[in-house]
Fold each of these.
Amino acid sequence: RNGITTALPIASLFYRACGETVEEFKDAAAAAANLGLRAYLGPAYRTGNQLVEADGRITTYYDEARGLAELDEAIGFCKALEGAAGDLIRTMLAPDRIETCTPELVRRTAAAGRELGVPVRQHSCQSRIEYDLVLQQHGMSPPEWMASLGLLTERTLLPHGTFVSGSPYITRPGRDLEIIRDAGSTIVHCPLVSGRHGNVIDHFGRYREIGLRIGLGTDTAPPDLIENMRVGMILARVTAGAVGAVRSTDYYDAATLGGADALGRSDLGRLVEDARADLTVFDLDRPHLGQVIDPIQTMM
């Protein structure tokens, strides 16, 4: 009902002691199969957790052994569930926010992703706190650090790509976006939740022009893909200061082709021979919608 036929769901680990469990994602796989929903699933894991010191500083506490054990469990989940429910269920590796990961966790995740042939989802470039923590601990920006550890490939999905060199939020010079582009990784653009927190990528049209792969995400509940396209288009035009900076079809492509291509699925996100017939139908024959000239514009 939110325009999604293939889901890659996430949840916040802020309120957990560490990562998610295999058991709850087995339940998620069963729920997706009962709904007939295509889903990419995998329990999130991490080797660190943020905490607030008595003086108000935000730092990171690490328990690497626990996080690496959870990575092993996540790998076991991928091996057990890949292709389940008549191939409705696929799997992924889901390390949590990059500032909560140690180098060993990132390296092992990168290696496991290549061996298993599954996508790796890594939250990054999401906040100033994250950027500063990674820079402080490793002397590199998040994209620079991920690239140095071999994490960035064509199967890497990176929400959110907002706090990067060249943006209004980061004064440090660098090539963050170019690093992501050259690796073939995909930025998962989540405009609604970013806008709620007062930030936005700068800007969608420019990201496309320099050759970045962009898929559309939600990162919030309800996962309303249409609302994210609409808000994203507005924010992009405001940020660029030009109505022609982005078209409604650009966001539609990100939500369909962009997401499918990020997963390496030429059989999703498009209506062509041999593709999966996953369809969501929207009724545009309602008086309040007015005249329908372009169905994509009208939907948004």
Note: The chain has twelve helices and eleven strands.
Amino acid sequence: MIRSPIAILFLLLVAAPAWADDLKTLAGKTLNGTLDKISDSEIVLKTATGPVSTPLAQVLELTLRVSKTIPAPANYSEVVLADESVLRCTKITFGANARLSLTSGGSVVVPISALVTILRDAQDGELKKQWTKLLKTKARGDRIFILRGGDLNPVEGSLGDIDPAKQTIKFKRDGAAEIEPALDKIQGLQFSRTDVLSEPSLCKIVDLDGSVLVASKLDYSGKHLSITTPFGQKVALEPTTLASIDFNFGRLTYLSDLDAKMPESFLLGGFNPVRKDLNLNGDAIMLQEKEYPKGLSMYAGAELNYDLAGKYREFKAILGAVARIAEEGQGKVTVSVYCDGEKRFSDLVSTKALKNIAINVKDVTTLRIVVSGSNFTNFSGHATLANAHVSQ
């Protein structure tokens, strides 16, 4: 029997597998299937051989679709948040918080303190080029940008309160009277932000229009993708609007993948006081019943120096200690972190309460980590820095 080309094509389409999603792991493996579930511990894909679960800590990236370079709407604003989210928006509504309506659908509500930059008409290539160049110039404080004759003109000063009813913002220049321009008359805004979020960031979610939303928690069970941002807000996105979920942030480096310089100490007897990606007893890193594939385990007395060469912006880690090892004689152990000689973190290690470390390391050359015991004989004391990494 001879089949027509159309019939053959139909049979091929029916026979072709529906699975199209790709999951890449930290171990370099790729899994193909259809996204079924995301929880705080795993991602489940439906594959040709059945459901396959991958621990969230092992996932590098989940690719669903290809995102667009340019959003569908003819006009949009680009908003950058303090957590490095980059959102393309059709509308920005200012109130007690800022409501950002995404070009791909859905909206994100963030505190005003989360805003770093806003550029209107970001689809204009020439305007975006000027904007990128101006942001590279160092500012002493906040800036507003006025568009005149096709040119962006930055004005330095201090941004103040927003009037939700009038949709205006207070702005004060040095030596000049305070003004209150309408927000829709300002082409761009730049807020001076120095705080680093202590809430750990889990991943970056990329939608079909190229927006990037940072999340600290995810949940998906077949309907909406429920997201918790590092600012504590809840967001629900349609799965059909998503392109990928990046758990590596694209530019993340684990300290356990770097070589640290360690000064020799006669107190440590010449042995290596650090183990990478393992507990000190050789088992996987486990803090409060949660396993971490990456991290550093260190005896008291250890000192590590990392050459960052000014390439990174943040250092993050989860500080704790493994209870069953600490039972052998932990004592008081302190972990201190120095950036080019300046102490930026110091705290006691606890087996009962994990502590999130988030340090701004922008322009830092040397990151130094020191683990100190309560006295000169406290060598059995130890600390674990799970998920210790620097990111650009």
Note: DSSP finds three helices and 32 strands in the chain.
